[in-house]
Amino acid sequence: MKRTNWRDLKNKRKFLSLDKNENFDFTLREKLHKFFVTLCPEDICLYPDVAKGYECLSNYTDINSDNLILSHGSEQSLKLIFETLHRIYKCRSITICHPTFEMVDVYSRLYDFNITHRCYTFNKQFNINVDIKDEDVVYISNPNCPTGLTVPSDKIEQLCLHNKWVIVDEAYVEFSRANSCCDLIRKHANLLIVRTLSKSAAAAGIRVGYIITNECNVDMFTTYKPAYEISQIAVKYIEFIANNDILIRDTIGRLQLYRRHLNKVFNGIPGDGNFIIVPYSDELYKYLDRAIDMKIVTVDDCDFIRFAVTDYDL
Q1: DSSP string, 100-122
Q2: Using CA atoms, how far apart are residues 30 and 257, in angstroms rounded to an integer?
Q3: Which of 130, 71, 131, 79 is nearest to 105 (CA)?
Q4: Has this prediction a pTM greater than 0.90?
Q5: Rounded to an integer, what distance in angstroms lies between the CA atom of residue 294 and that of residue 17?
Q6: Mean pLDDT over residues 11-21, rounded?
Q7: 120 neighbors 149 (Cβ within 8 angstroms)
Q8: DSSP secondary structure, 44-99, as one string
Q9: CA 224 to CA 89: how far, in whole Å?
Q10: Could you identify which of 17, 26, 86, 162 might form a hypothetical disulfide with 13, taking C-beta atoms 3.0 to 4.6 angstroms apart as the criterion?
């Protein structure tokens, strides 16, 4: 994958640019006006109070701050992890459950990992064999994008038992019917969970990601972090959603409702996430292309259309 560069972005995004799985719950957007009145000039003029960000994120997630590492988006969480695993822990190989977030391959190549792809399969529904052993690093997005498949926690635990390090990307976990595997960090110090506020909390533009891991890892995995992990506006947004978590619970519920609705309308394949995935057809593509940006993905040699769920009438 070629790295994204603003000079390459020649095509203007549509009003419904649903190809990046941002939060397109317009009901939530109207209510986020309450956030802007919390800002003041000092939030721009002064360096960020990152400690406050950790405190508020701990309150929001109900996870001890000693188990958290903030970052400028989950992509930077992944970069931090790959750099640490490569430079400090001398990891040289990775198995990636594929297809997935494209930056995982980018950082694997950047840090000179030997890459093996464990591929999702499709036979009326998606599946994957996660019987992976004796690997330096295993990466799995759970729920997976683009398939929406969630692997149960007992399978994640088996990965932790049989491999050196396991990265579980839970970008879409709030939209999953299964539980997070974060309880496993107490038992398995080799587990690194990556999350973002971009999807459920509609913070893609603010850039807030975080790592959840055993507290014994935190000092080592912050070796290569920047002086300030996030901006003060990001700190204030974490504080806002921690104090107004009902807004986030409501948007998750609405998007899950619209996901079920859109799956029925377009004959989508059931799964988790804030998106739907539909078998490709030229007719459907032409119909959708009039109004939305979407993503064409290939799984098991089959083409699919994936787009974010919205409460806007398609």
Answers
A1: --THHHHHHHHTT-EEEEEE-EE
A2: 19
A3: 79
A4: yes
A5: 7
A6: 92
A7: yes
A8: HHS---HHHHHHHHHHHHT--GGGEEEESSHHHHHHHHHHHHHHTS---EEEEEES
A9: 13
A10: 17
- Average model confidence (pLDDT) for the chain? 96
Look at strands 302-308 and 295-299 and give their pairing.
antiparallel
Q: What angle do CA 170, 102, 226 make, to 5 degrees?
A: 70
8, pLDDT greater than 90: no
Judge contact between 144 and 304, C-beta under 8 A.
no
Q: How far apart are CA 50 and CA 70, in angstroms?
A: 9
Q: Is the dihedral of CA 264, 269, 272, 275 positive or negative?
A: negative
- First-to-last alpha carbon distance for the chain, in angstroms, is 31
What is the pLDDT at residue 7? 66
Residue 97 region by backbone torsions, left for phi larger than 0, else alpha for psi between -120 and 50, else beta: beta
The two tokens of residue 22 are 């941002």
Nearest to residue 230, comparing CAs of 51, 45, 72, 49? 72
- Which pLDDT does position 18 carry in this prediction? 98
Closest CA to 174 of 203, 207, 215, 154: 203
One-letter amino acid for residue 239 of the chain: E
Query: H or E segment at 246?
Result: helix 245-266
- 55 pLDDT higher than 70: yes
The structure tokens 């990636």 sit at 96
**H or E element: which one contains 275?**
strand 275-279
Q: What residue has token string 């994936």?
A: 306
4: left (phi over 0), alpha (psi -120 to 50) or beta: beta
Q: Where are the alpha helices (DSSP H) in 152-228?
A: 153-162, 218-221
| pLDDT confidence band for 137 (50 / 70 / 90) | very high
- For the stretch 147-188, pLDDT in tens is 999 999 999 999 999 999 999 999 999 999 888 999 999 999
- Percent of the chain's residues with pLDDT above 70: 96
